[in-house]
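MODEL INPUT / OUTPUT PAIR
PAIR INDEX: 1
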Amino acid sequence: ARQRIALLHGFQLRKDMYLELEQLLLKDFEPLLAEYIGEIAKVRPDLIKDRTLRYVKNYEAQILEMDKGAAILAGVAGAAVRLKRYALLYSGMIGRYIQDLPKDRFMRLSRMISASPYDAWNGLDLKVAEVREAKYRWDPES
């Protein structure tokens, strides 16, 4: 897996390519894998699933120390907003990068929380309300 990650490093990833992720996850931290996950989050967020989210959560501190670590983590947080289950399970991680979520991901999360206000959002609902007030107060979509 480590060799395949090294080979994939530097490839310009596109949506139409056959991309894999789960098979490449390692037990230990690998910066090239973290970069690859960040690229996957941009082009194929549907490939970001439980195992990848757990990997990113486990190595969040190391990823954050990387050059584009915050962008990788924000991309993964945005991908996690695809499913309510992920948003609930990884609410802490999503909350830490909520300021950097793209508008469409933020709005999706905001609608998700509005539709299920009594779920255990672990404070994510309050963070969404704060960001919505600060960033999107005048936005007709919010």
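PAIR INDEX: 2
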Amino acid sequence: MSVGEATAAFNAAYPEAGGIASFLGKVRPGNDVRALELTHYEPLTKTGMGDLARSALERFTLDGILAWHRVGVMVPGESIVLVAAAARHRRDAFEAADFLMDHLKSAAWFWKRERRSDGWHWIQPRSSDHQDRERWK
């Protein structure tokens, strides 16, 4: 399913929502990045994503959420992740989308590496990613 199809299906699924907040993450160009590869262990990823979704639904007043994450090799400009939250009120939708991304950036069940001109390099979450997640405790 494409990003556009996922977004359209999510929108159609929640016609009573007052709004939908979303974030689309893409492979950034620059810094000699030729490709980005994300790998995962599916049983762990599915369980973790499900737990994260339940946490968001318990924490915020939502009609629904969407967390869509690609794996495999992507090139600069391609979409990596889409999160969306449907809610009666905008604040819940925005905060839920932010909550989802803060957790996906620092505590996700994916391994990430970049291909540059000198080979492949593993990517670790930045300290700011961990700090962003900590604010939700």
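PAIR 2 NOTE: The chain has four helices and seven strands.
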